[in-house]
Amino acid sequence: MSDVQHTVRRPGPRFSRTGRLIVVAVLAVLVVVAVVLVTRLLRERANEQTLTVPEGQRAAQIYATADKALHLPSGSTAKAAKNAHLPLPAEAKGNPEGYLFPATYPIRSDTTPASLLSYMVKTGNQRLAEDRITSYRTVVIASIVQAEADRPADMGKVARVIDNRLARHMPLQMDSTINYALGRSTLHTSHADTRTKSPYNTYRYEGLPPTPIDNPGADALKAAGAPPAGDWLYFVTVKPGDTRFTADYQEHLKNVREFNDRQKNGGA
């Protein structure tokens, strides 16, 4: 007899023909479902629109942009804003100016002016909560900071100038608030402009304007919420990137003269 031992291999379990057909059918169904879902997702993304709110835009500008994005007649979003129950502080008296947070928002087939505005305000409230800002006054200041500061690095100092002038009962004399009252944006403010009878004329009336003058971004809100220490009372942006802050009025007048001279020479 041979000493060589043979190992007997038992055949493993095999799927029946019916079982294999069932597996193939299930896999085919899964593939079809996956293709349908991916196709639908790609189609939805291709059709999805967005609305971008830049930092410092006024509510009126946002309303007009929203009307176009939603393919609605002009004035539709402005009208909705008056009737929408938005989560605003009592001081706002239903006016969302200052709380339409700058960001990019999705526009879907079921988006309405009211739902879009609500989304913006809720986003703004979330950012305010993250920065621990609870005061309407701070949002008003932030809106002025957003309009007046030449760059984010200057925002804290601009906020401090506002606080210092308010503490001394000095009129703010901010051109940006007059621009808001007159519905414009310009660097040139005339003596006639400073006599405008509007509560937003901070040359004529002491204190803050009654509402924010735009919708400030995160940098302006942080600056208004925690401005740096300083004694500055005046500032002027002589040229882009060159904003000069001072507590000395005569020095400020010198800076203003330099700004005016540059403007006469075309800003050069």
From TrEMBL:
Its EC number is 4.2.2.29. Keywords: Cell membrane, Cell wall biogenesis/degradation, Lyase, Membrane, Transmembrane, Transmembrane helix. It catalyses: a peptidoglycan chain = a peptidoglycan chain with N-acetyl-1,6-anhydromuramyl-[peptide] at the reducing end + a peptidoglycan chain with N-acetylglucosamine at the non-reducing end. The keyword Nucleotide-binding does not apply. It holds the Pfam family YceG. The keyword Cell membrane applies. The chain crosses the membrane at residues 21-42. It is found in: Cell membrane. It is a single-pass membrane protein. InterPro entries: MLTG-like. The record marks E148 as: Important for catalytic activity. Its main location: membrane. Functions as a peptidoglycan terminase that cleaves nascent peptidoglycan strands endolytically to terminate their elongation. Belongs to the transglycosylase MltG family. HAMAP family: MltG (MF_02065). This is Endolytic murein transglycosylase. It comes from Streptomyces endophytica. The gene is mltG.
